[in-house]
Structures are given as structure tokens and as C-alpha cells.
Design goal:
2 copies of one chain form a homodimer. The N and C termini of chain A lie close together (about 5 Å). In chain A, strand 5, helix 2 (about 80-90) and strand 6 (about 95) form a beta-alpha-beta unit. The model of chain A has no long low-confidence stretch (mean pLDDT about 95). In chain A, helix 1 (about 15-30) packs across helix 9 (about 320-335). The first copy, chain A, has 9 helices and 13 strands. In chain A, about 30% of the residues lie in helices and about 20% in strands. With about 350 residues, the first copy, chain A, is α/β, with parallel strands linked by helices. The relative contact order of chain A is 0.15. At the A-B interface, strand 8, helix 5, strand 9, strand 10 and helix 8 of A face strand 8, helix 5, strand 9, strand 10 and helix 8 of B.
């Protein structure tokens, strides 16, 4: 039910790495914000953050925080989403939730606007923002799926520290000089040293030997693309990079294609920037692309090991397209559809 | 022709990152060295290196450097191998060459001793040591191939700076503090900044869109495993790690297998150490495994996207098993076979 009154926006988790990005993106994209409510845990109560040049107080997230709020952007972990998102919905807000709490619930749309904005219709108050590594992959897969039908995906990720939050980024920055001095470092946020190291674990392990992150890439990709049986396998790896994820993606299509056909197809894809001139060593990289908005695709080639195979390399900023930007784009798509 | 006289060993490229590792490994493995000739470019002439507690002078690599040498370990780049290895052979030496110069020549054995030590018979003086990323992968693939027949390999690599030499490792160490201070850094050895970054390019690009490194993994794997048509695809990525390579390997076998069968098979594999207890976050990682000798395999699981698929994670020290150690193991295998 669209209302004509003021657009009051709440950010739950305003002091986190994604929260900071929400503030920037709402401002940069001139999202209509008449009033902004910043919410965080008790620890951050009393802090102030700046939005459009004005200082805003951070309030403690509570069930009564959402009176008058029309859009609540949540990025404060699954447990808090479960606790507080229903209260926001009950108060009349649309919740776009960055956590994994509701993503696989049948009645909750899981949306990457470039792919399935239509799934927003019929929502019941909560929209789930997909996992960061899934978002950038499905943006790249979607035009290929429409043109050539994707039949299998094998992906290996190179995931930045930011995916584990601001403290994880600080841990990488703190460890690096110590490792260079030959000192032992203690891992606090991550399961192991991340500086000058990497490890094939993002999130916890499940009984099938995959991590939860890897299975998110399987299940969320299927849900977003509307292909409940699509074969997907992932190996998710944390690397000593600050805030953009990279992915080596091998795709099997329903029939053989040329590189030219794939490039032409991807270049029409919404949200995609092709960056692919190998002879000039031009391809997407996480450091220079940090802070950008597109999903960058390079290393596009016909897979020499499979007659219908294509290989590509996909990079996107984890805090922006992988989190805050996609959530704001969901809100924008809802406005266009008269849902917000 | 085996001779009973003294074992004179030459190292061409003694002052490089692999050269230093040759000295360590010959000593650690008690390889029989009666006399050691250290060779390098003019730049390093006059330096001394320590071997078994004794100081050895570094001499300039020249065509007349090899009189009396029985084993010449080369790691000084393909151009110098082409120039000087034939002179070493003409002087009666067996050359184990770490460069790519001779690897794909039909009469040159390309050997990973755990896989194809038999290929050493009938050599003509030069034995090629495979590419680092290929060595560790074929050690892990070989027992699977013997037990279940490997039908396709999809690999994504996470390659350390050491693969580009000692100066590349120094570049990573020099860049890291500068990047943390927000300074711009210049890439000299690598095509781009490597600290807190990564890039999908190792070696130069070829016309099919793959890099030379990626095609080495294709062609060398086929030659070592004796499967000239084995479908292999690789994405090779340089990561900000100092000296061990990691690989996410997806394998398609000739029939379905269980995880238990794969683990049992790999645990019998020569040169392999299984490190795989996900519930304890135990899997191979490049930082703690730097300086070790085995090929470490973890994250072993049935690939949920393919009925005959298996996924695994393979880590090995690039300077040891990926270069110097494998070369010395080749020499040891030749001694066992009476070829040296």
C-alpha cells in the first residue's frame, strides 16, 4: 500500500561496514529520504553519523524503533533481523534485509533487481538481499542464461575481508605489518591468519563438506534465477584483499558459443561492465574497483575443456553491489513498481 | 651412462629464490654432493653462498662451466636454459631444467616422480621440471586417475608471489605497508599492484584467451599423466601470498564415487598429505605450509553439481615441491634407476 506521506528511512546496523555504505549510497543516488533513523546495538548508542551534511544520532535498535518508518534497511546480522524485522513490518515498514535470515523462505522475495525485480510483487513486508558472492555472479550469469541457457556453474571465489565486517578488515590491516616483521599474529575475527595467507572457508561447514557460504551460492542462485535444479558448485575462499570479491566462473551452456557471442550477450546485461583486453593486461581487479558500483566481467573465453563451456572472471565491490547498493536498488525498484 | 666417479653438482641460477631452495634441499635430503658449482649471471659473480657449513663462490654461468659436472640443476629462466643446457649435456651432465624451455619437446621427459618416474628412461640429457602449479595438481590427480579415471579438470589457482621470483616476493613485501598508508605503489615485477590486490594473469596471454601459465597446466598435465586429450581448463590468479600456491580443483571421474572412496584413494597417493577436518577448520593454507615438502589436500567432497564430480583444495610450497624439491627428487629417481 503506497502512501503519499514522508519517506522515513531506518538503517539497522548503521555503524557497521555496510551501514556506512548505506549512508553513502542513499546520498549518492539521491534516494528520497525525508527523515533518517540510524539504529545500532547498545554499544553504539550516542554516536553520531553524517548524512547529507547533517549530523544524525545513532539510536539503540529496539522493537519500537520503527514508528512512521516506510523503508528499513537491515544489516545487523541474522539474529537481530529475526528479532526486529517483524516489528518493523508490523509498524508498516518494508524491510530490505541483508542477512541470511529470510532468504530461503518461500514467501520472501530474494532479489537482484537486474535479474528478478518482478519477484518483488506480492511481498509480505520483508525482501531479502542475497549473499554478496551470489549477487555478482547472478548478474553475470543472467544474460547468458537468457540467451544460451546455463546448465552448470563451477565457481571459485576470492573473497575480501569486508564480507566478515569492519572488524575483519581491521584485522587484515593490523596483521599485515606484524607478519612482515616476522611476528606471530592472533586471529580474532577470522578462523586463521588472513594477512599473506588465505583459506577455503567462509562461514561454517555443513554435513555435505561444503560451507554455508558455498551452499548459499547454490541455493540463492537457483532461487534468484528461478531454476530450482540448476547444478552449481562453489569453493569459497577468503583472501587478503579489503573490499571487493573476485570469482572465477566456469559455465556450461546448452549449446556451443563463440567468444564474440558471449561478449555481445554480456555487454547487453544490466549492471555489467565488460573489462576485457588481455593483451593490455586489462581485466577486473579488486583493489582498483573497490568503491565502484558495477559488476565487472573479464577473462571471457570459450572453455577449452568443454564443448559448451565458457569461462569468465567477475569482480564487484562487496560492500556496494554485494550489499548496500543492491539493497537500495531493491528499494528503488519497489518505488518504480509502486510498492514503496 | 652411470659413472663411478665423484658427484659434481652444478646449480645454474644459484642466487635466485629457487637456487636458495636447491642448496637447502640438497643439504636436508643428504643428496650425495662431492663438489658443488654455483653459477649465476655476471651480476652475482663474486658472491658466496653457504652449503653444508662451507662457503662456496658464485661463478658466472658460461658454456664452459660444466666440465666434470654430472648433475646440473637449472633455474635461471628459459632463455639461459636454451643457451647453456646443451653445453652442460655436451660436457656429460644430466640437466634437470626448471624452465619451460624444453618441457613440451617430445624427447624430453617431463617428470613428477610420484607420477611418471618411468619417463626418465631413454632421456637424452635434459629432464624438464614441470610448472609449479602443474606439479602439485598432478600429484593430487594421479591416484584419482589410477583408481577412477579422471575425465575433466577445472582448476582455479591462488598463486604466490614466489612463482615470479625473489624480486616479486620483495615487491609484495614493499608494497604492503605503503598501501596501508594510503600511498600509491608502482608495480615493477608484476603487471599490477599485488599487495591487497590480486589479478587473473600469470605469464602472458595467448590467442585463445588463456594465459601461458593456464595452457602450461593443460599441456603439462596431459604429458605427465600420459593422457594427450584430457580436458583441462584453468584460471590462474596471482594473490598476495609469499610462497605457497593453492588450487581449487574440480574433477570429473568416469563413475560416481563417495567421499570415503576419494579420501582412501588420496591417502595412498605418493607425496600427498591429507589435511581435512572441516569441523575443526582444518584444511591446507599457504602461509603455515610454506617451507614444507608434501602436496596437501583438503576440502575433499563429492561435487553436488555433477554425478561423477569431486572437489578438492590443494596447497604446496611453490619453491620446494613446485620447483627445487621436485627437481632434486627427479635426480634421486634417476639415481635409483641407475641413470645418474
Amino acid at each position: 500500500a503506497k502512501e503519499e506521506d514522508a519517506m522515513q528511512v531506518a538503517i539497522a546496523g548503521a555503524t557497521g561496514a555496510v551501514g556506512a555504505e548505506f549512508l553513502r549510497i542513499l546520498s549518492q543516488r539521491r534516494f528520497p529520504v525525508d527523515d533518517l533513523v540510524l539504529l545500532a546495538s547498545e554499544r553504539s548508542e550516542g554516536k553520531t553519523l553524517t548524512f547529507r551534511g547533517r549530523s544524525c544520532p545513532v539510536r539503540r535498535l529496539a522493537k519500537d524503533s520503527f514508528a512512521g518508518v516506510r523503508l528499513a534497511l537491515f544489516s545487523c546480522g541474522a539474529a537481530r533481523s529475526v528479532e526486529f524485522a517483524p516489528a518493523a513490518v508490523a509498524a508498516g515498514a518494508v524491510v530490505v534485509d541483508n542477512s541470511s535470515a529470510f532468504r530461503m523462505e518461500k514467501e520472501v522475495p530474494l532479489v537482484v533487481p537486474e535479474v528478478n525485480a518482478g519477484a518483488l510483487r506480492g511481498h509480505r513486508g520483508i525482501i531479502a538481499n542475497p549473499n554478496c558472492s551470489t549477487i555478482q555472479m547472478v548478474v553475470a550469469l543472467w544474460p547468458l542464461h537468457q540467451a544460451f541457457r546455463v546448465e552448470r556453474v563451477v565457481v571459485s571465489t576470492y573473497q575480501a575481508a569486508s564480507g566478515a565486517g569492519a572488524r575483519a578488515m581491521a584485522e587484515l590491516e593490523e596483521q599485515a605489518p606484524k607478519v612482515l616483521r616476522g611476528e606471530k599474529v592472533a586471529a580474532k575475527v577470522f578462523p586463521h591468519q588472513i594477512a599473506f595467507n588465505l583459506f577455503p572457508q567462509v562461514d561454517v561447514f555443513l554435513d555435505n563438506g561444503y560451507t554455508k557460504e558455498e551452499m548459499k551460492m547454490v541455493h540463492e542462485t537457483r532461487k534468484i534465477m528461478g531454476e530450482p535444479d540448476l547444478p552449481v558448485t562453489a569453493t569459497c575462499v577468503r583472501v587478503p584483499v579489503l573490499r571487493a570479491h573476485s570469482e572465477a566462473v566456469n559455465v556450461e551452456l546448452s549449446h556451443p558459443v563463440t567468444r564474440e557471442e558471449v561478449v555481445a550477450c554480456l555487454s547487453t546485461g544490466a549492471g555489467i561492465e565488460i573489462m576485457d583486453d588481455p593483451k593490455k593486461s586489462l581485466y577486473p581487479m579488486p583493489f582498483p574497483l573497490s568503491g565502484t558500483d558495477a559488476v565487472y566481467v573479464g577473462r571471457i573465453r570459450v572453455d577449452i575443456s568443454h564443448p559448451q563451456g565458457v569461462a569468465m572472471w567477475v569482480v564487484a565491490d562487496q560492500l556496494r553491489k554485494g550489499a548496500a547498493l543492491n539493497a537500495v536498488q531493491i528499494a528503488e525498484a519497489m518505488q518504480r513498481q509502486g510498492l514503496l
